[in-house]
Model the fold of this input.
Amino acid sequence: MNQKALIAAAAVMAGAAGMWLWVEQSQPHQGFQPSDFEFPRLEGVSEIDITCSDAAISLRRVDNAWTVTAPYEFEANSAFVSRIAEVFADRRVVDRTRSADDRQAVGLGADAIRLRVSGTNGEFAANIGATVGVEQTVRELTWVVPDGSTTAYRVGSDLRSRLSCDPERYREMMLVTWNASDITAVELPMSASNPTRGTVRRSGESWQWDEPGATSFVLDAGRIDRLVSGITRASATRAASNVDAVEAGIAAGAQSIVLFKGDERITLLLGNQVESQEGSSEGTPAERFLRVEGEDMTWVVSDTIAGHVAQTLEGLRSPSVTDLARDAVASVEVRRGPDVFTLTRSSCEETEAGCVEGGRWQLTGVSEPGAPNAESAQSLVDAATRLRSTRWLSDAPADVVAALSTPGLILTILAQDGSARIIEMAAVTGADGQTKYFGRVPGEDLFEMSEATWQQLNRSESDLL
Done:
């Protein structure tokens, strides 16, 4: 036989072998009909027992809530458990069978799981195995051997991946099971240095002080909404089952936040930072212990969640120092040391149609009074009337207080209604050579501002011409 004939024969044999393998992989076992097995349509599933080589887990449902009753009792993550019960609500297609005697081939080794599920119309029990199949992609294959059967059924289901032999995997990790919209009030300490606690209550779409005269500053409703949303969606990283309150650093006086839902309340207590586990990579996010007051379990939470719980009312303070509408301003006086000039809005602007309210800005107190550059003048007025702090300083450093006793820049904003707001500002260079910018409204807390804000406000008359 010549070389070409040999090549042709080999190609035919390879094609035949490939066709046999495709048929073997894609067709049910000879003599098997898909109707021979399917998961029973169990209704009202209320009991699930999962037995592994090293654990036996029992789950029970009352109404719509699942509870782990063994190896110890705790509230279960109902959404996670329901994924198991869902398998018995739909028919699952069997795509292959083989003898259950070949236990290794159907995944019935040490990792096999025994499953019993009970509903109002019956129960189902089987051994569940898994193997890795290489078809179009690498994926886990689930094998089911029902009680009393000598046949293993490979099913098109991810049932095996829905089962865990770790009891903690079924635990409800949500710290607060209320919705954000359910929260009616929040209680927090005033600041890191002032443990006096204050309460804000939801009022329609905003939040108001429980005692309006308790403080002089205004809260940012958006920040409170984000705080409440962050906590009500927060889940613990894991349970610290063997850590008591003392070891976790959760004792009287611990940092805490209290959430109210009508007359109900939940208090979250923040503990010590969790020591890095051996083998954890550098840069692993920090974690803290946390406990819900009245419960025995200690949780481990991310630093982000810990930050929510450690929040203070001062941290939720509105960043606004001034918040005036552009048209509400009558004048802005700028005092830079001995130099003083004033931007004054004329009562109206003369046009062919007559006097129109909201006139142009005029620059006075300078060598040549007149109309400034309109864009520069409006930029200064906007910066002055929409001044934002980067942080508030209820306990300001001594060097900042000293600098503001002789401010380098003073703005006086006069509104159309005759009210005035004075802002004193100063630049402070620290020992590290960095310059920061601070301000205050007399009688109120000090604040820090950005360099960009300082530059917008610290204008000379020549900057406006």
Observations:
- The two ends are 101 Å apart (CA to CA).
- The longest strand covers residues 122-134.
